[in-house]
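Quick illustration for those who missed Monday's session on complexes.
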Amino acid sequence: MHTEGNMHTKENSCCCSFEDCKLTTDWLLSRTRHRPKIAVVCGSGLGLLADDVTNKQTFSYEDIPNFPVSTVPGHEGRLVFGHVNDKACVFMQGRVHLYEGYSLCKVTFPVRIFKLMGVETIIVTNASGGLCEDFKVGDIMLIKDHINLPGFAGQHPLCGPNDERFGIRFPCMSDAYSKDLRKLAMSVSSDLGYSNFMREGVYCMVSGPNFETIAEARMLHVLGSDSVGMSTVPEVTVAKHCGLRALGISLITNKVSLDYSPRGEGQP
Ligand SMILES: O=P(O)(O)O[C@H]1O[C@H](CO)[C@@H](O)[C@H]1O
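Prediction with 1-O-phosphono-alpha-D-ribofuranose bound:
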């Protein structure tokens, strides 16, 4: 069989085998007493989510065997173990993306490490562009569903041989984002007085690194996307595959231009 240039063939399918994951998990477990039940992936510029962690122990990604290293600004590249309100947590201060040149297997490697460490719930955050006309910059969108655009083109973290120790071959994705967690998040934000800027919607992943053309943005909108970004979907897909409960939170950091007329500099 000719394999050159095809990432997903049997011979060249996985840079992150179960054994690789086990090695990294054991490395971490032997260096920390923390046993987190909740993992949080901090999106671009959102590393401050880990600021209030108590009893902190941190590891630089570059020191952790097999771990991918963040290369973009706004992604510090450290794992932070500790407690938030007495809950044992681990925060990824910074993630890696497909456009950095990592395979999606590598992008999602940390999710499997969390699973093997005993994590049960994962909160995946991101910075994204608002496509829904009602959205304002600064709104927070709870992700109720996603569109995996790179997945349609074969860029999918679960392509390649399936290891049943992680999950089944054909995982269901219709309930990837826990309804209960979304309900809880809405109720907590209402208690905090945040209801005015809480939204719920569909996140679409594009590969990046360029932002969308106006025609592309219109297409994504017509397809039912409320926000667009270059992450999250692979992590949540792998989380669902291995049985983690997931909450997805998107901070709307910009409004995506859907028409050619306004402020028209440089536009077609
Ligand atoms: O999704 P996160 O990591 O928050 O980052 C978002 O912000 C970057 C673009 O500014 C892209 O990487 C996009 O995906």
